[in-house]
């Protein structure tokens, strides 16, 4: 599969640089999704997750000729945090699948903040009015279950559906590594 994507990239780069770059971005996202960045505990560095999250946003912007309204904010005070892979990316993909992102008054809002002991991720969008894609909420249920199994009570996952808007707020509180503290 990656050889095929490399072949397509090589053919397309001569005539359409943006499409070629999109193929390369897609290949990188797919490689990431296959777990190449995971550590032994099954987690990834927050910076890796955010890099691929931004690639997902960029590919979707290109699909819509850069007409989507997206507001992305991040404040990363601790780049060493490790999280479950693809959780944040899945939430962003859900917004592209189910949201209406062409309204400048109601952009897709993505906020991520990290601190030494935690992560906060917020995403919200106006809901689409057209034909609903088949969805049964299993993706969100799977995320909730994964988070509960991994972080237990140190995690909250709140979904708000007003009928017009949809949002998710994720808070993860990490155990403080006492050994790291005492070695300083």
Brief synopsis:
By secondary structure, the chain is an alpha+beta fold.
Tell me what the structure shows:
By secondary structure, the chain is an alpha+beta fold. The protein has a domain of 116 residues: Heat Shock Protein 90. The chain is 42% helix and 24% strand. The protein is built from 6 helices and 7 strands. Strands 2-4-5-7-6 form a 5-stranded mixed beta sheet, covered by helices on one side. It has a two-stranded antiparallel ribbon with strand order 1-3. Strand 4 and strand 5 form a beta hairpin. Helix 1 runs antiparallel to helix 2, helix 2 packs antiparallel against helix 3 and helix 3 runs parallel beside helix 4. The longest helix has 18 residues. It is globular, with a radius of gyration of 18 Å. The C terminus is likely disordered. This is Signal transduction histidine kinase internal region domain-containing protein. InterPro entries: Bact_2-comp_sensor_kinase (IPR050640), HATPase_C_sf (IPR036890), Sig_transdc_His_kin_internal (IPR010559). It comes from Mucilaginibacter defluvii.
For the record, what CATH class of the domain at 67-182 applies? Alpha Beta
Proportion in β-strands: 15-25%
What is the end-to-end distance? 46 Å
Silhouette? globular
Mean pLDDT: 88
CATH architectural type of the domain at 67-182: 2-Layer Sandwich
């Amino acid at each position: 599969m990656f050889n095929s994507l490399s072949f397509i990239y090589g053919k397309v780069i001569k005539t359409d640089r943006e499409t070629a770059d999109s193929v390369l971005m897609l290949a990188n996202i797919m490689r990431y999704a296959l777990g190449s960045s995971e550590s032994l505990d099954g987690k990834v560095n927050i910076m890796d997750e955010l890099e691929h999250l931004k690639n997902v946003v960029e590919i979707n912007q290109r699909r819509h000729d850069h007409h989507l309204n997206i507001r992305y904010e991040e404040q990363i005070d601790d780049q060493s945090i490790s999280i479950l892979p693809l959780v944040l990316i899945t939430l962003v993909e859900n917004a592209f699948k189910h949201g209406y992102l062409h309204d400048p008054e109601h952009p897709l809002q993505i906020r991520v903040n990290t601190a030494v002991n935690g992560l906060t991720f917020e995403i919200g969008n106006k809901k689409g009015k057209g034909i609903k894609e088949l969805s049964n909420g299993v993706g969100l249920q799977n995320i909730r279950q994964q988070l509960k199994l991994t972080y237990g009570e140190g995690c909250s996952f709140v979904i708000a559906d007003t009928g017009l808007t949809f949002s998710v707020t994720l808070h993860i509180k990490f155990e403080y590594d006492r050994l790291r503290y005492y070695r300083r």
